[in-house]
Amino acid sequence: MPGRTHLYVPGPTNIPDSILSAMHVPMEDHRRPDFPELIQPLLEDLKKIFQTKSGQCFIFPATGTAGWEIALTNTLSPGDKVLAYRFGQFSHLWIDMARRLGFDVEYEEVPWGEGVPLDRLEARLKADTKHEIKALLICHNETATGVTSDLAGVRKALDAANHPAMFFVDGVSSIASIDFRMDEWGIDIGLAGSQKGFMLPAGLALLCFSQKALEARHTAKSRRCFLDIQDHITNNASGYFPYTPSIPLLYGLRKAIDLLLEEGLQNVFARHQRLAEGVRRAVKAWGLELCARDPKWYSNTVSAIVVPQGYDARDVMHYAYHRYNLSLGAGLSEVAGKVFRIGHLGDLNELMLCSAIAGAEMAMRDVGIQVTPGSGVAAACEYWRETAPAVKPR
Ligand SMILES: *Cc1c(COP(=O)(O)O)cnc(C)c1O
């Protein structure tokens, strides 16, 4: 089909042309004498994206899933108790991994469409007077349901219970798009993947460890080799990696961080908020509901839209793709067929997002869902017009 494919899954996201160009490089020696001139500032500037001064960043040739494993195995020993909440496919998979790696996983089932229940978390931490819980596994933005949890609230619960558990956060679909404050919120490990807010292809797991999490490696008995941060600590100190890095991805990451810092992190967060609100206005105009059950859970990077009873969201995606060249996000596991998702993160503006809303609208009508033609696009566009930055008259 001529023209661009419209990519509105919540990852991989659209890659800006300037990042594509930055990655188009001949291969070079990753042991060359001036390689640290690329790596040392890169690791330093990555800390700004995690909003940390005291943490240490790591770049692994892997994906977000490896980030979960890096966090667990570098800080904990088999049998250690961890506490988690299951409210979507990604929080589920981290729990599943922790069990498979031999940790004692305590988790609570939370309805899909809600996030971390802060009151129950605080109560559970207070009840754990022997401090058996060694770490919390928190999925900041549950990409499957479009739900964002309150990390500052998690920190408050830990403090209120005066509990020393480490605070691990999956920020794969939040970091670089939704406010994430490593130091201020006392997060011990934040982890991300390159293909979401960082606007890159998949292939890098990006992590930040607090000093407390770094210290934990000395007592953590979990087996680890390829994913051992110690080898990175040793090699990164002089600006190198323990094994061959992906050179194009590193140049891409350099460009991505430059773009994010040039725009300004606060502006990046505000842009995501405003674009997301436009999508939510569209959903309301269609007369449909989000999977997120309350505005306090609304995600600024992905919206999971519930199709009316009697329809299958997979049909909407099918028509969107085959008729309009539009990729929408699928409903995963428990919400398969019940929701489709619009990813609205990364390199994005109003008119790009209009194509996703228009295509979703057309595909819904194609399968018989009675949304008013143009209603979603109109609602989003009016919101974006009303909130558009002032422009000096000509
Ligand atoms: C995408 C995603 C992951 C998985 O990352 P991969 O890069 O596919 O391994 C984990 N957690 C969340 C919240 C995600 O959105």
TrEMBL record:
Keyword terms, alphabetized: Aminotransferase, Pyridoxal phosphate, Transferase
Classification via CDD domains: AGAT_like (cd06451)
The enzyme's E.C. designation: 2.6.1.45
Aminotransferase class V domain ranges (all copies): 39-331
Keyword Transferase: yes
GO molecular function: L-serine-glyoxylate transaminase activity
Domain of life of the organism encoding this protein: Bacteria
Gene3D superfamilies found in the cross-reference section: Aspartate Aminotransferase, domain 1 (3.90.1150.10), Type I PLP-dependent aspartate aminotransferase-like (Major domain) (3.40.640.10)
Annotated InterPro entries: Aminotrans_V_dom, PyrdxlP-dep_Trfase, PyrdxlP-dep_Trfase_major, PyrdxlP-dep_Trfase_small, SP_NH2Trfase/AEP_transaminase
Pfam families the record matches: Aminotran_5
Cofactor(s) the protein requires to work: pyridoxal 5'-phosphate
Family: Belongs to the class-V pyridoxal-phosphate-dependent aminotransferase family.
Protein name: Serine--glyoxylate aminotransferase
Organism encoding this protein: Methylocaldum szegediense
Lineage: Bacteria, Pseudomonadati, Pseudomonadota, Gammaproteobacteria, Methylococcales
